[in-house]
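Service request form, structural biology core

Requester: graduate student, group of Dr. S.
Request type: structure prediction, single chain
Budget code: on file
Notes: please return the result as structure tokens.

Sequence provided:
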Amino acid sequence: MNVAILNTDIQLENERVMLLPFHHRRHQELKEIIFDDSIWKFMGMHMKNDEDFSNYIFNTATDKQNGICYPFLVIDKETNQVAGSTRYGYINSASEKCEIGWTWYGKKFQGTGLNNACKYALLQFGFETVGFRRIQFSADEENIRSQKAILKLGATKEGIFRNNYIDQNGQSRNDVYFSIIKEDWRAIKKEKFSTFQ
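Core staff response, request fulfilled:
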């Protein structure tokens, strides 16, 4: 597994989306779309003001420096606007796995096909360049929209993790977990992402 590549500046791109390292100067453009309560309902945090925004930027950068994640800015190539953020998280080089998540998009970018293009870029790079054996996804048990989006990628639903995180109100929440493994990737790439090849 080529985990060392996660210590470099990675830029991923296809015809629909560009993913830039989160520390890119354009991260300030997230302010234009981030203050929307509907985005954060299942993310375990509030995003109400400039202090929340600064904390989000700082915590994301700190997690990256500590090797916990590799975050990206999502750029919609049709508009050249910052559309949101996503990341590889829970990176485990010993078990050659990670989780794609912490993904959010501004409202006007939701349901536009951007998520599918973004996930394809991450999955392709994750399996074919980094060499992960397992890439997992999770969604709050009540977040049906995200669960459907994950299933559309060809992921296998594995089960429910009870009390998996604590939300912004201090309540325990359950997550549904899904995965794609390297043995699945070739068929999924052909079936679900043929438009990008």
